[in-house]
Amino acid sequence: MDRKEFLTTSAILSGAAILPSNSVFAENINNNGIDKLTDETGNFIHLPLPYNTDHLEPFMDTETLRLHHTFHHGGAVKGANKDLGMIKKVMKSNDLTLTDYWTKKLSFHLSSHILHSIFWTNLANKKSQPTGDLLKRIEKDFVSTDKMQGLIAKISKSVEGSGWGILAYQPYSDNLVVLQCENHQKLTVWGAVPLLVIDVWEHAYYLKYKNRRGDFVDALMNIINWDNVAERYEIALKLK
Questions:
Q1: Alpha helical stretches, state H, the chain
Q2: Fold of 132-237
Q3: What's the count of helices (H) and strands (E) in the chain, helices before strands?
Q4: What SS3 state is found at 52?
Q5: 23-82, pLDDT tens digit by residue?
């Protein structure tokens, strides 16, 4: 089994889901902009930000954004490629002793790569609100946008250690769900497709906000790119 075949048969398409590589969501991830996770050979790739590093000022400072994207997201991409290479090496050797170790590492690094790729496009430099079908679904599942944002803000602020708050679409139950994720891959729900992710690792906010995670989360609520969230929702609906 070569690298591309391995990716095809075991593609982990979100920190909260493993979806078939021929799904609509997988196609969007592979072909559209910042969500393109791999090249044609199956190697994970680290694309540039979709905007300048000062684009999110004053809510996210330039230096944090540069370091976060370059070293933390970039490090996850390098780690995922190494993990996949080691899994391939172990499989060729017929000594499966270390497969447990490397598959756990891949789960961590690849989930980081996926969530960060979503995170960058989830943010804009202006305030907006959900509209259209997304707004109707939010009101159906959470009563109002304010209540939904209050919920995702609360669970993001209260993650134990490092992690993420996630608004996702669950195709099995056909509803939106808010999830709390520890690290990049823990406490998630199979099948859920992330639409909006809030990064609350300390490296995402510490230069500007120090230990005030709550202030950082509240600041991000002002720059959510709801058009991007709505686009992801429309793609996720096709998985029903």
A1: 3-10, 24-31, 62-67, 74-93, 99-121, 132-142, 145-157, 206-209, 213-220, 226-237
A2: minor pseudopilin epsh fold (3.55.40)
A3: 10, 3
A4: coil
A5: 444 444 444 455 899 999 999 999 999 999 999 999 999 999 999 999 999 999 999 999
